[in-house]
Amino acid sequence: MNKFLKWFASDSFIVSLAAIVMGLLLGAVVMMIGGYNPITAYGALISRVFGDWYGFGEALREMTPLVLTGLAVAFAFRAGMFNIGAEGQVLMGMTGASLIGIKLTGLPALIHAPLAIIAGALFGGLWAALAGYIKAKRGVNEVITTIMLNWTALFLCNYIVRTFLLMPGNQRSVEIQPSASISIDWLSQMMGNARVHWGILLAMLASTFFYYFLWKTKQGFELRAVGSNPEAARYAGINVSKNIVKAMFISGVFAGLAGAFETLGVFHYQSVYSSLPGYGFNGIAVALLGMTHPFGVLAGAGLFGSLTYGSAGMSFDAGVPPEIIQIVIGSIIFFIAAQGIVRFLLKPVYKRKKEKVL
Amino acid sequence: MKKAVKLSLFMLLAFSLVLAACGNNSSNTAATTGGDSEGTAATSDIKIAMVTDTGGVNDKSFNQTSWEALQALEKEQGVTVKYLQSKSEADYQPNLNQFVKDGYNLTWGIGFALESALGEIAKQNPDSNFAIIDAAVDAPNVESVLFSENEGAFLVGVVAGKMTKTNKIGFVGGMDSPTIKKFEVGFKAGIEAANPDAQFTAVYASGFDKPDEGKSAAATLYNDGADIVFQAAGGTGTGVFNEALDRKNQGQEVWVIGVDKDQSIEFGTEITLTSMIKRVDVAIKTVSQQVIDGTFKGGTITTLGLKDDGVGIADTSNVNVPQEVLDEVQSYKEKIVNGEIKVPAE
Question: What average pLDDT score do residues A181-207 get?
Answer without folding.
Answer: 93
